[in-house]
């Protein structure tokens, strides 16, 4: 049976959450995670062809942050990457956004996501295309993570990069033991982020927090040129399987595994996490609504792809990819521990084992539009939360949640 601890947490505090202003994507996540695999989400009715029993199967929410829906999606994603990734050495590169920009991130999540992906991709592709650093076109698989080990806001991209790539003469050149000079990559990435932010600011596309003036932004902007940014290049891997499996755990199902929740009292939840500095398992205590708030801030924006492919792995580079594939092959032949095989999910009668027959389905009623009813009068006569309410919500959400009972 799936671990429903996170769902129980959302169900227990849904009445309190419904009383606070929330961005639209939070409302959708709260509803989906609370109702997943319950009668509220809809029911499929099955029967045994031999007449032994009838039973009901509740529907899944299929939300990107739902842990209950994640396992099957992880298996499918891993199988797709096995077909895509070249069976050649890879490097794992992590690009981090400076914490000074976190307040801006909260008000410009879509813009910053685009900038973070673009800066990470261009930094790797342009430097590796330089003859001084190999002059090759690599394959890049990139994922966006917005959380740290303690579920705090920590936007960064994980990049799985082929150790080498296709040359202009359509030959394969290996990068050797080192991918790129770390100092060069850090400064190049910093310049890219800063250039894109300056462009957005001058174009009027950047929304500043209420407590930040334009002068404050430019002062912070200039100050970050004097800081070393965090870009980490891990050691070379024989192939990309290990990193791909690591990324699969977080690409689907949100940042928290229910197994990490070790205790839950009325006022405190204790969760475990791996301290990346000491490499030890540690524990922290959070108020239930505080934990929910940390989970909600990592809900992906609708329409934003958090996994992207560039270079040889880009869909548009099919011809070059096929050439590299003919030399190296892919990971389809490698053994991968999956935990769950999608083929075992066929519903069968518990008495005779005969595959069940579907008799009918009832789908949950979903109101049209993008509004969620909210009883707070200050939201207007309609009592609805619209996408335009997001900047207001971002500024008051923390204080509103803090005022609620634990």
What descriptive keywords fit this protein?
406 residues; alpha+beta; Replication Protein E1, Chain: A; five-stranded antiparallel beta sheet; three-stranded antiparallel beta sheet; 11 helices; 15 strands; 35% helix; disordered C terminus
Cα(first) to Cα(last) distance is: 29 Å
Q: State Rg.
A: 24 Å
Mean pLDDT: 85
Total helical segments: 11
Going by helix content, strand content and strand pairing, the class is alpha+beta
What percentage of amino acids are in beta strands? Answer: 15-25%
Write out the strand line-up for the largest beta sheet, numbering strands in chain order: 8-3-5-4-12
Order of helices and strands: HHEEHEHHEEEEHHEHEEEHEHEEEH
User: Uncertain runs with pLDDT below 50, 5 residues or more?
Assistant: 338-344, 369-406
The profile of the biggest β sheet is: 5 strands, antiparallel
The outline comes out as: globular
Number of strands: 15
- Residue share in helix: 25-40%
Describe this structure in words.
This protein is of the alpha+beta class and 406 residues long. The protein has a domain at 70-255 and 298-328: Replication Protein E1, Chain: A, CATH 3.40.1310. The protein is built from eleven helices and 15 strands. A hairpin with a 4-residue loop joins strand 10 (269-275) and strand 11 (280-286). The two termini are 29 Å apart. 32% of the residues are buried. The model is unreliable at 338-344 and 369-406 (pLDDT under 50).
């Amino acid at each position: 049976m799936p671990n429903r601890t996170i769902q129980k947490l959302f169900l227990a505090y849904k009445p309190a959450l419904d009383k606070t202003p929330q961005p639209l994507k939070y409302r959708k996540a709260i509803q989906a995670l609370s109702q997943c695999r319950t009668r509220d989400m809809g029911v499929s009715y099955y029967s045994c062809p031999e007449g032994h029993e009838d039973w009901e199967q509740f529907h899944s929410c299929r939300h990107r942050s739902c842990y209950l829906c994640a396992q099957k999606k992880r298996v499918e994603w891993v199988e797709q990457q096995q077909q895509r990734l070249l069976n050649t050495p890879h490097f794992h590169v992590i690009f981090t956004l400076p914490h000074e920009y976190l307040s801006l991130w909260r008000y410009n999540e879509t813009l910053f996501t685009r900038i973070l992906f673009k800066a990470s991709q261009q930094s790797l592709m342009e430097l590796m295309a330089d003859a001084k650093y190999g002059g090759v076109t690599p394959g890049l698989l990139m994922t966006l993570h917005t959380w740290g080990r303690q579920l705090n806001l920590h936007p960064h991209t994980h990049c799985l990069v082929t150790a080498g790539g296709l040359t202009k003469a359509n030959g394969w050149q290996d990068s050797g033991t080192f991918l790129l000079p770390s100092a060069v990559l850090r400064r190049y990435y910093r310049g890219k982020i800063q250039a894109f932010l300056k462009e957005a600011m001058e174009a009027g596309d950047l929304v500043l927090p209420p407590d930040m003036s334009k002068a404050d932004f430019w002062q912070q902007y200039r100050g970050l040129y004097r800081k070393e940014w965090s870009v980490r290049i891990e050691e070379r891997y024989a192939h990309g399987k290990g990193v791909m499996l690591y990324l699969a755990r977080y690409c689907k199902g949100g940042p928290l595994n229910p197994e990490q929740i070790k205790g839950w009292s009325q006022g405190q939840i204790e969760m475990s996490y791996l301290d990346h500095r000491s490499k030890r398992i540690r524990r922290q205590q959070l108020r239930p609504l505080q934990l929910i708030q940390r989970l909600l801030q990592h809900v992906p924006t609708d329409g934003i792809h958090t996994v992207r492919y560039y270079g040889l792995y880009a869909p548009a580079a099919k011809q070059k990819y096929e050439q590299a594939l003919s030399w190296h092959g892919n990971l389809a032949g490698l053994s991968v521990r999956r935990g769950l095989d999608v083929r075992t999910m066929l519903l069968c009668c518990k008495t005779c084992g005969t595959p069940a027959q579907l008799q009918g389905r009832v789908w949950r009623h979903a109101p049209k539009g993008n509004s969620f009813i909210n009883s707070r009068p200050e939201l207007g006569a309609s009592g609805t939360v619209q996408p335009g309410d997001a900047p207001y919500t971002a500024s008051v959400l923390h204080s509103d949640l803090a005022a609620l009972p634990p």
